[in-house]
């Protein structure tokens, strides 16, 4: 590792339990004396949170696919500069709810095959991957019904139907194969404490 801290991300389809598990892991690690920064994408720094409302609110056709990738990358760059890298340099554990793998999937796949563009921009402007990525894998129908239970103004992507969710699940599993050195796949089709136990075991083993 080129830094003192540990950079962990959570990925998976909508409603798979990423935010829940990221929070539970942060609480567990804090409880065992670690310094933890819990953050999320898009967002995670004041500037990136402003971009978050631009990409998650409003008309689904508000941005072209290409402009959207630029906005996500701009937000990530700010998040990296202002939040993630300073925390890692200070030796903290950074837990991030979604990161570049979500852009590879959602912006890379949902409106045509733009994965190449996403990867080019990533290597140009971001240039780093997490130390470890937890993929919460689960049945899309369950994920969709969990996600639909929520209300809010961040609805630009809420109309992804079951077919796209199936495609995303398969895409995330393929990504886990592609980056098998850093991905750990966790079965999300269980109660949250069982999922959290697996996540804790994986991370504690990595910390030793
Ligand atoms: N293992 C679980 N069993 C049952 N319900 C769960 C489980 N994990 C999370 N939930 C509930 O499902 C909903 C979605 O969970 P959560 O917000 O953590 O998912 P997410 O992956 O962050 O979703 P999104 O992609 O939309 O941000 C929440 O209401 C949460 O309380
Ligand atoms: Mg979430």
UniProtKB/TrEMBL annotation:
Keyword field: ATP-binding, Kinase, Nucleotide biosynthesis, Nucleotide-binding, Transferase
Question: SUPFAM superfamilies annotated for this entry?
Answer: P-loop containing nucleoside triphosphate hydrolases
List residues of the Thymidylate kinase-like domain. 10-198
Q: Which InterPro entries match?
A: P-loop_NTPase, Thymidylate_kin-like_dom, Thymidylate_kinase
Name one molecular function that GO assigns to this entry.
Answer: dTMP kinase activity
- EC number(s) per entry: 2.7.4.9
Q: Which Pfam families match?
A: Thymidylate_kin (PF02223)
Q: Gene3D superfamilies in the record, alphabetically?
A: P-loop containing nucleotide triphosphate hydrolases
> Where does the source fall among the domains of life?
Bacteria
Reactions catalysed, semicolon-separated, are:
dTMP + ATP = dTDP + ADP
Residues holding ATP: 12-19
Q: Which NCBIfam families match?
A: DTMP_kinase
Family, similarity comment = Belongs to the thymidylate kinase family.
* Primary role: Phosphorylation of dTMP to form dTDP in both de novo and salvage pathways of dTTP synthesis.
Name this polypeptide is given:
Thymidylate kinase
Q: Which organism is it from?
A: Ruegeria haliotis
In the UniProt record, the gene name given for this protein reads tmk
